Amino acid sequence: MTVQFGSFAALGDSFTEGLDDPRGDQRGYLGWADRFAQLLAAQRPGLRYANLAVRGKVLAQVAEEQVPGAIAMAPDLVSLAAGGNDLLRFRGDPDALAQAFDDVVRTLLMAGCQVLIFTGFDPRFPVLRLIRGKVAAYNMHLRAIADRQGCLLVDLWSMSVLRDPRAWSADRLHLTPDAHRRVALRACEVVGAEVTEDWRAPWPGADGATTPGRAAWLAARRMDVRWARQHAAPWLARRVRGISSGDGMAPKRPELLPL
Question: What does the pLDDT read at residue 221?
């Protein structure tokens, strides 16, 4: 099928910015959106692409800081993945968040853009499992929004391949490069672009002998402690100080330009 979109703008937070999928040139991150744009451009030469996503942004910031710029560019396709940072906060309300998300979607649709939205992941790691119910409720709203508004939908929750620990970087919040690649392939399927790889392909088997049960449990708990010290504690410290990892950062690709 021929790609129908001649331009694409990506909005959101660290997921769409591309953490933790480093570029080979050491200039920031690649990520699913860059990979998706490359796949589209291979079938639609001259495709123009912008990425306004910035790590740490909550939905209100995406609406205020990114949506007006995207509308001014008038892209054919806009991706919107936001709300995860809101749900990580203690008072994150999936119902109120979904209403705000619906408002953003309607704004983009009224501007003449086709909208591609993403559900949240299925959080399986310790501690993060505490927000699983909120994410599930939010996802129900997002599926209803997609159905009601005629949006394209990438259901990350149903991608069982992403429940494997190998899909996640050490901070347990961001995808590995191969997981970003799989999301890009899934997005291509959703928009009707041809792909030559299958995002459902099993992960490569781990080499070496399996670890006995108790030893595996102890190793997992050591990893939990290391994660809490290296990643969870700094995140909580930023929340207490009222700052974000994306404060002062500019979008990596602020203009709609050919790849």
Answer: 62
